[in-house]
# Entry
Amino acid sequence: EADIYQTPRYLVIGTGKKITLECSQTMGHDKMYWYQQDPGMELHLIHYSYGVNSTEKGDLSSESTVSRIRTEHFPLTLESARPSHTSQYLCASSAGGRGYTFGSGTRLTVV
Amino acid sequence: KQEVTQIPAALSVPEGENLVLNCSFTDSAIYNLQWFRQDPGKGLTSLLLIQSSQREQTSGRLNASLDKSSGRSTLYIAASQPGDSATYLCAVDSGNQFYFGTGTSLTVIP
# Structure
């Protein structure tokens, strides 16, 4: 049973719109991550956080931004969506070497 | 930088066969290694987590081994079933970041 929740599960949105993808975890994990994954392709780390008020950019350049105001919440925002942002976005959390827990993902389509 | 490689990239087997998936990594200084399963369009489901001090972990028909000194891990699936069809990913925790392999796409034919 997932202890990390992503909403929405699917999103179709027009170009230029601002969107926020939600990610919440109930495990008290200090570390949280956002990955981007195109169909059949590998995961790319776009943002991560090691705790409240800590955010860093990942390996893959992304036009999105994140915030970490509460331990359990790590939302990702796109100020102006473009078709190139169409992808699956996966949120994960971890703590103390106990491995990653992933959410179910948000599949974003920008038309 | 840690590099994680998975071989084979794709595998197709008849139902009932035992199979082995391979994962290799370049830097042996790891905290743990984790195997995941991913179904198309879905998130990653954790299968097994092996700490760096452990040699293997078992869950049901799955057994994962870790040889840190040689930079290798294997995932053994016994008596494969069509429901095992998915992409299997290994990930290495090097302390500051997890590094993912590119995955093995498994198809089990009924």
